[in-house]
Amino acid sequence: MAVYTTINIQSIFRDDTFYAYEIFFRIFNIISLAAMTTFLKDESNEQIMSHVANVLRILLLQMQTIAEEISFKKDDLINQEPIIQVLLEYVDMNLFEIGNDIQQRLIEILEFIGTLVDNTILVSQLLDVDFVSLILKWIEMSELPFCIQRASVRLLYNIARHEKGCEALNQADAMSVLKEFKQRILDPTGNDTTYEDMRLLFSMTAALLAEPKESKIDVKSLGKVLDQLMQLTVYTTRKTKITNMAISISIENHLFL
């Protein structure tokens, strides 16, 4: 008689964070192998591209899961900067590809990068990658797919949560780009609930980037933002870290709107 058991992989990593840390970077090393980078640079043999793509997807999803259980250190990604750059360039090359598979792959890459950026201790190191300029370039594009827009604004928010990230964004004149994005995308969709999360992310990013003397309170917009934040807080009153709608708000990060 066969006996089956279910193994909770997440709990294994949660119970042994050292093991989780080791596995995370072993997987990163696999993604850095020549077969993967050749695929990401669009130089693979067509016969094996789909297989490599499937492997990449599995690895990214696994790393995203493991990363939630790891306490990163400041210089953890020093050896991974080249492959992170390649991943971002792959997204940049394929922004307007219309196939469902490739669009999903781009989202998975950006969500993985977002998981890294969510750890503010890693932001200063990620700034060494051509990161901020790419994201700002993307949200300036008029025909950018909605899913990429949303992922890009989320990345900007998490970058802005870090002091050096905020400095880098201001040096790149991110506020001007965001204001133009608001006028072009968010204002015309004011009654579209599909954009609700993006408007919240935009408002919090703008609040983090704005100098006190530049801040102008829009009472109506501020009220909506505070209502959404209150809903998140009520929903997760027993948690010290809120992760909802791809937004992270940690109690150690003091956010003032």
TrEMBL record:
The keyword Transmembrane helix applies. Gene3D superfamilies: Leucine-rich Repeat Variant. Keywords: Membrane, Transmembrane, Transmembrane helix. InterPro entries: ARM-like (IPR011989), ARM-type_fold (IPR016024). SUPFAM superfamilies: ARM repeat. The chain crosses the membrane at residues 23-40. This is Uncharacterized protein.
